[in-house]
Hints:
Shape: globular
Radius of gyration: 22 Å
Number of helices: 13
Amino acid sequence: xxxxxxxxxxxxxxxxxxxxxxxxxxxxxxxxxxxxxxxxxxxxxxxxxxxxxxxxxxxxxxxxxxxxxxxxxxxxxxxxxxxxxxxxxxxxxxxxxxxxxxxxxxxxxxxxxxxxxxxxxxxxxxxxxxxxxxxxxxxxxxxxxxxxxxxxxxxxxxxxxxxxxxxxxxxxxxxxxxxxxxxxxxxxxxxxxxxxxxxxxxxxxxxxxxxxxxxxxxxxxxxxxxxxxxxxxxxxxxxxxxxxxxxxxxxxxxxxxxxxxxxxxxxxxxxxxxxxxxxxxxxxxxxxxxxxxxxxxxxxxxxxxxxxxxxxxxxxxxxxxxxxxxxxxxxxxxxxxxxxxxxxxxxxxxxxxxxxxxxxxxxxxxxxxxxxxxxxxxxxxxxxxxxxxxxxxxxxxxxxxxxxxxxxxxxxxxxxxxxxxxxxxxxxxxxxxxxxxxxxxxxxxxxx
Length: 448
């Protein structure tokens, strides 16, 4: 069957299209989509690759202070969740280290002979309508995002870039509306499924599954046979004819992609046999054939689940971060092999971080501001951008009493840096990031 029942909102956000020739994916190739996709031209190639860490990654154990006084505070409050100081992956000359499971990406932070630094960290990013501060009486000053600690709401707000609610498109989808290059593929692609973040007002994303690279179902697949039969029907209502045209466009695109992939050489890099490893392997393959497909701007949305660690957090997060690190290293190697390391910027997102103070189940609970990774040859690496929170409970940077850090950087500032590098013009910034003007200093500088 082409369609399957989705059990939850998260399933919907992460669900994969069966093929590019399904009705949902075909919407990307309707007449309006084709006109939009061919409206503008850019000559160079750039790609953005988002990895969304679903569940709320505990960033307090991703980026950890290494200077003795601050680490002592960290260890005292984190208790049984504290990572040993000796095991941290030191980040250059900074006073911070990464979780030991992230050791494979550590060398990217520091420039070495023949290779520039291509990894940066961005501290304390979160959903914000405008800057929020804590008054001496504990009250918060500023407009708060809708349903602040809700998984589904915060996933939506990270992806649509409008924490006040009401948006039906995503910030990368709106970016695609404004910077759409020629090419066979739609500009935005969900690996393992589509997502709100890559849905535009005028453009629609495509989605592919991980069941082999082919974007078309086998000719013997009952769904594909039925689809082909439907496409052969002529006449009928105008609506049916329009749907047939969209589906035909989709299948033509899928065939072109298959042909390009089949004519390409195999990458020598071996990607880890994990979900996120498989997704980044797919992205690398599409980037490899972008020239044959005429693509000059591409946006990819990948995802990694399992970060909702209310209990038994240490082993779970260690495995998840280890899988992420291994996949990032393989992807970096693939981009170097393709000569595209300077053309691709990879970054992480997650709906929120988790409480600095553990709960009673060797886990953590929903919080707010989080730390993120940005990787790529164009990244001004070797630095930590933004403002790291003061590790003190029930005061200053804590929105509550357990270390729910008030973000010091908004997703608008984070995303605007990525969008600027991608080519977004100043006049179009308010369309993509309507709240950016609320933050002094605008976008961050991790991409120059």
